[in-house]
């Protein structure tokens, strides 16, 4: 699928950030809604092999979020954070912490830019240290993010196809 091949990761040695850029074949409003709708999160967030539920999701400055994923063996992986800035449909700023490694918090800034009916997502993840960033990268951050982005793209495509079909 065309949209799945347009993800770029910038992971510079000695730097405490990761920049993820992706082009979605959907309008910015739809991309933002899909990022922030608790009913849609389980359809795209995290690896396909996990079942994810939204425990909390209050999308406003100061609001908290918490997602819980389970694998087939019943292992639980939980993540949480706080929204710092919510500017629909252009920007989200929030913290991200894996509960399995408490105290390692990153700050994520997602900026959405619409270009010719498509949306460019620029996701800047800043870690507390280079070591934290390198640890996340070594533990599969890029693979996990890529799978979520691919699932997100596929969901957007399904939503767009249903919308087109309903308008016929």
Architecture overview:
The chain has about 170 residues and is an alpha+beta fold. The chain has a single domain (about 1-165), classed as Alpha-D-Glucose-1,6-Bisphosphate, Chain A, domain 4. About 30% of the residues lie in helices and about 40% in strands. It is built from four helices and eight strands, in the order E-E-H-H-E-E-E-E-E-E-H-H. Strands 1-2-8-7-6-5-4-3 form an eight-stranded antiparallel sheet. A hairpin with a 6-residue loop joins strand 3 and strand 4 (about 65-70). The longest helix has 26 residues, at about 140-165. The protein is globular. The model has no long low-confidence stretch (mean pLDDT about 95).
Strand order of the largest sheet: 1-2-8-7-6-5-4-3
Give the CATH superfamily. START domain
Number of alpha- plus pi-helical segments: 4
**Integer count of domains:** 1
Q: Number of DSSP strands?
A: 8
Pattern of helices and strands: EEHHEEEEEEHH
Determine the strand fraction and express it as a percent band.
Answer: 35-45%
Mean pLDDT across the residues is 93
Class based on secondary structure composition and strand pairing: alpha+beta
Quaternary structure annotation: single chain
Fraction of residues in helices? 25-40%
- What is the end-to-end distance? 24 Å
CATH topology: Alpha-D-Glucose-1,6-Bisphosphate, Chain A, domain 4
Please give the largest β-sheet.
8 strands, antiparallel
What is the level-2 CATH architecture name? 2-Layer Sandwich
Task: Label the overall shape.
Answer: globular
How large is the radius of gyration?
16 Å
What is the name of the CATH class? Alpha Beta
Low-pLDDT windows of residues: none
